[in-house]
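User: Sequence recovery, please. Input:
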């Protein structure tokens, strides 16, 4: 008795399985690939009314629309990859900043034991009687630094960490403010402070973030100077 062969049936199952493997990713199942478009276009030509054939202009327009859509999708994917590469590159560069000091626009600084803090003052025009007030976390003034007169531009300053009485202030965060007489009126001048980079974070909406000791995180674009 002759055997019965199920090869054709098995082969049919094989190609179906392989076809399913092409769309292992659920996101791929709903996408129209280039070969799918040309298959549909061919079917359209085969099924067209011979008395009313598709005009060349219409066919070219369809092909152009698909090609443009495919090109835009590919361009978008390349931009996404470019953005990912840029973020990785920024993270690599930012990692070399761990342990270094950066100048950032803030009125706060973290005082470490035995180490002073520094910052920079800016004035749009000549200022007289420039004074820096330093307050602790309770709001109490621990020291006032008299800078004197200051020409237009910027000026660096340092605080050695001692109080008005000459004692060493405890480690922690302190708030700085600068007041001066500018054009005959008392004004508060803008300042920036140096801070130490403790670590680097990536992956959030802000991109690469530098975590400053005692002050929190800032973005790379906020850094004015690295030392």
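Assistant: Recovered sequence (227 residues):
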């Amino acid at each position: 008795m002759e055997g019965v062969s199920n090869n054709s049936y098995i082969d049919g199952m094989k190609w179906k399985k392989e076809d399913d493997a092409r769309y292992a990713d659920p996101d791929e199942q709903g996408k129209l690939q280039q070969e799918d478009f040309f298959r549909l276009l061919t079917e359209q030509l085969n099924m067209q009314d011979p008395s009313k054939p598709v005009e060349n202009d219409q066919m070219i327009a369809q092909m152009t629309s698909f090609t443009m859509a495919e090109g835009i999708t590919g361009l978008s994917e390349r931009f996404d990859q470019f953005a990912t590469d840029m973020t990785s590159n920024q993270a690599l560069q930012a990692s070399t900043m761990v342990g270094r000091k950066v100048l950032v626009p803030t009125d706060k600084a973290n005082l470490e034991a035995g180490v002073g803090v520094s910052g920079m003052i800016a004035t749009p025009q000549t200022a007289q009687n420039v004074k820096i007030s330093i307050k602790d976390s309770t709001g109490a003034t621990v020291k006032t630094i008299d800078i004197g007169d200051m020409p237009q531009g910027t000026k660096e300053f340092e605080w050695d960490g001692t109080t008005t009485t000459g004692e060493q202030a405890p480690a922690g965060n302190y708030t700085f403010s600068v007041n001066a007489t500018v054009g005959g009126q008392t004004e508060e001048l803008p300042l920036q402070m140096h801070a130490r980079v403790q670590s680097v974070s990536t992956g959030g909406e802000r991109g690469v973030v530098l975590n400053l000791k005692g002050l929190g995180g800032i973005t790379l674009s906020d850094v004015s100077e690295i030392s």
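The chain has a mean pLDDT of 76.
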